[in-house]
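Support request from a user on the community tier.

User writes: "When I paste my structure tokens into the form, the page sometimes reloads and wipes my input. The last time it worked, I copied everything first. Here is what I submitted, just in case something in the input itself triggers the reload:"
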């Protein structure tokens, strides 16, 4: 039991108590702005200034230092350091709060807000300032093609082969702070169940769209339910 691998999927709910908005809660991001206007390749081609402004505001908030990891992020970092087997955090979030809490084994399947990518050569660079249409790529020298290194609707998430391999071999799959509304992440629990050996748990404020697919569930704020569940895993396993 103690050297088995764990995959943790996280969504916007784990960062809510750090002060970052979720997407589909009543006060979420998609209640104030349309996905079609800021989070698709067409939106960027049509109005790059508006898309840059949307991400610049979120990047500035994250880079300001006002937003800090919370007890849920820190408890997952503790799990990674104390569990004898591999612990992989697969996050849908584009913030860096898992890393700032101490998690090292993290996959950002929807990209990272603090990175920029050149559409011409594909070069990816750390980026904490505003992005704009006039910027020149430091790798290829082409101007005007720098975009947020985030995955928009209609684009392929990153690192899917690594994620699929981890899902296929894990003994425990835990989903935290996600509504289960967006694929492929929403389908991970089915993929794990299909193999039949792993235990599955959902830790969320409320039942997600896939709630009935999980063998175990604990509902409440992530800063309460996640540390308690990590304590349970490190104490008696699952
Ligand atoms: N603790 C735990 N869960 C919470 C908390 C909290 N404090 N606050 C909210 N939640 C839960 C909500 O109940 C909801 O189920 O977190 C979930 C957030 O769901 P969404 O807002 O849909 O965010 P997420 O599931 O991460 O969205 C997936 O959709 O828009 C795209 O790319 C975006 O990565 C995002 C993806």
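"...and here is what came back when it finally went through:"
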């Amino acid at each position: 039991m103690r050297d088995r691998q764990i995959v943790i999927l996280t969504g916007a709910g784990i960062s809510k108590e750090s002060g970052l908005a979720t997407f589909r809660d009543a006060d979420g991001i998609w209640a104030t702005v349309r996905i079609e206007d800021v989070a698709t390749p067409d939106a960027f081609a049509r109005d790059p200034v508006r898309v840059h402004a949307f991400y610049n505001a979120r990047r500035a908030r994250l880079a300001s230092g006002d937003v800090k990891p919370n007890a849920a992020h820190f408890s997952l970092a503790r799990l990674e350091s104390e569990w004898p087997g591999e612990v992989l955090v697969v996050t849908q979030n584009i913030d860096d709060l898992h890393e700032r809490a101490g998690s090292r084994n993290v996959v950002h399947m929807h990209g990272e807000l603090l990175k920029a990518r050149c559409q011409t050569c594909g070069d990816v660079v750390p980026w904490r300032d505003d992005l704009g249409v006039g910027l020149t790529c430091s790798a290829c020298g082409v101007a005007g093609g720098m975009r947020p290194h985030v995955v928009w609707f209609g684009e392929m998430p990153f690192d899917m082969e690594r994620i699929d391999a981890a899902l296929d071999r894990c003994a425990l799959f835990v989903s935290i702070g996600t509504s289960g509304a967006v694929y492929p992440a929403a389908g991970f629990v089915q993929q794990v169940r299909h193999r039949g050996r792993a235990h599955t748990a959902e830790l969320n404020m409320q039942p997600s769209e896939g709630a009935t697919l999980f063998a175990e569930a604990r509902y409440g704020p992530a800063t309460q339910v996640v540390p308690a569940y990590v304590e349970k895993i490190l104490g008696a396993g699952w």
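Agent notes: The reload is a front-end session timeout and is unrelated to the input. Residues 11-13, 16-17, 22-25, 28, 92, 110, 177-179, 181-182, 204-206, 208, 221-222 surround adenosine-5-diphosphoribose (CB under 6 Å). The chain has a mean pLDDT of 96. Escalated to web team.
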